[in-house]
């Protein structure tokens, strides 16, 4: 043990005993080192903290608070905001329970002094389809940019007379890159029925119909696995949208080491093996203008729980989809149970999985260099077609056998195609305001097989679990239509397009 | 035979574990006197019999706590105090935190 003076309070991993003060030092240092080592958060940058109220994200909020306070030595230098996604509708909570939880969270958030916004899951039905588009700028030399930014920030802080002008000056000086202007343009193409996230109609910014729609969406999925994945996807879209309209360029998530180890194994089971590096790594660049970072990824759940207890970090427990569920209720739940049990007997389990995940590097480029090139999944924004690159892959085998079994039953087909035809009539009446709705609904009937080609393998499995595709929020269906029309048009004008081989012939 | 006096223990449940105890986070309990001093193993059995309201398998597995539940004895990791064999003393503070709900 390090200091050898005070009594040891807890053991981490095998044989690392800490006393209270050494533990606090170790914990705080790890957070700073994580941010410092990766050099992704620029000084003065606006960073959105995604706080669910659970121990890890509450700990993240606490660390950021402490790090930004005047007392801290070498204090952190970014501008944080808080977002909380309230998911009570999906978990079957009553309005009273949800109000209480939100009230508890608001008091914690107000104490922090950072601007915060509470977004309800029901607002997913007011999102614009632009949230599914990724915006990429040209790659730049990151290291030089970082050093210059730090130097510039220090200078502007010295020259400004009052200390509280510091943040404002830098925020103004941060030049709006093409990314930001593009993002603000996208937000104006909002859905016709959209209400702004902070507007309140009565007590809540959503209607009871939207709560019902959320409940129906989740009830339409048979397995808890699919429900959990869908909830995660919708949550991410809401966070992304909030970040874009409020001008944040980074989002910090509170995933702990334990949680990421579970996610790693569960994602392999779900068919997301190709995207492990992005799903569990420190930074997740797939959305282009917004980078998701996970600064808590080196803390085990035990460390976080201990820190929170010893140093009074407030957190609010919210029951989730799989609270009190039996062990085999979903793939994610079973994986968590497996790893936690193994960890009890072999305390290096989680860190071994973590070390392995650090070594994962994508074989093919994970992010399209420009958004006209590689296709990305509609729901998770990952590069499509990874599984098709090797002809001898397991995925090809599965798709061949799927094709063969479907061609035997021409009427059976997919559940979705029959429900698509029924819904067309409904949609004509409901979506009179969105552009070209009547031709869209006719097209939907014909393009169902193309819809599946817009999704990656694991998202396909999640959506297939639904009984009806129309329960998906409007923004997803709209974006799906838009992409299908683009593919169709591209096919039609394919012969007129110059390919890179043609360019090569004519190059000087 | 000399009997030990009954001892008062403060129990706390957090991280979601309180769901199994009707949502009540703090309990002050008095363990009846017995000839041998109480140890944590016996305390767990006592909790299972007297406090646990539902789904015992989510709290206790066999003779110990379910993996994923942290135990703090007087703000220290129970692994440093002897785990199940730690002998309880009057006014001890035992905290059970579930780490199975992330955040």
Automatic annotation (TrEMBL), chain A:
Signal peptide range in chain numbering: none
Annotated Gene3D superfamilies: HUPs (3.40.50.620)
Origin superkingdom: Eukaryota
Any single GO BP term: protein urmylation
Keywords: Cytoplasm, tRNA processing
Pathway listed: tRNA modification; 5-methoxycarbonylmethyl-2-thiouridine-tRNA biosynthesis
Gene Ontology MF, one: sulfurtransferase activity
Family: Belongs to the CTU2/NCS2 family.
UniProt protein name: Cytoplasmic tRNA 2-thiolation protein 2
From TrEMBL, chain B:
GO cellular component, one term: cytosol
CDD domains, A to Z: Ubl_Urm1
GO biological process terms on file: protein urmylation; tRNA thio-modification; tRNA wobble uridine modification
Pathway: tRNA modification; 5-methoxycarbonylmethyl-2-thiouridine-tRNA biosynthesis
Domain of life from the UniProt record: Eukaryota
InterPro entries: Beta-grasp_dom_sf (IPR012675), Mopterin_synth/thiamin_S_b (IPR016155), Urm1 (IPR015221)
Alphabetical keyword list: Cytoplasm, Isopeptide bond, tRNA processing, Ubl conjugation pathway
Cellular localization per UniProt: Cytoplasm
Keyword Cytoplasm: yes
Signal peptide interval: none
Pfam families: Urm1
PTM notes: C-terminal thiocarboxylation occurs in 2 steps, it is first acyl-adenylated (-COAMP) via the hesA/moeB/thiF part of MOCS3, then thiocarboxylated (-COSH) via the rhodanese domain of MOCS3.
Cross-link annotation Glycyl lysine isopeptide (Gly-Lys) (interchain with K-? in acceptor proteins), location: 103
Record PTM 1-thioglycine, positions in chain: 103
Chief location bin: cytoplasm
Family to which this protein belongs: Belongs to the URM1 family.
Physiological role: Acts as a sulfur carrier required for 2-thiolation of mcm(5)S(2)U at tRNA wobble positions of cytosolic tRNA(Lys), tRNA(Glu) and tRNA(Gln). Serves as sulfur donor in tRNA 2-thiolation reaction by being thiocarboxylated (-COSH) at its C-terminus by MOCS3. The sulfur is then transferred to tRNA to form 2-thiolation of mcm(5)S(2)U. Also acts as a ubiquitin-like protein (UBL) that is covalently conjugated via an isopeptide bond to lysine residues of target proteins.
Protein name: Ubiquitin-related modifier 1
Lineage: Eukaryota, Metazoa, Chordata, Craniata, Vertebrata
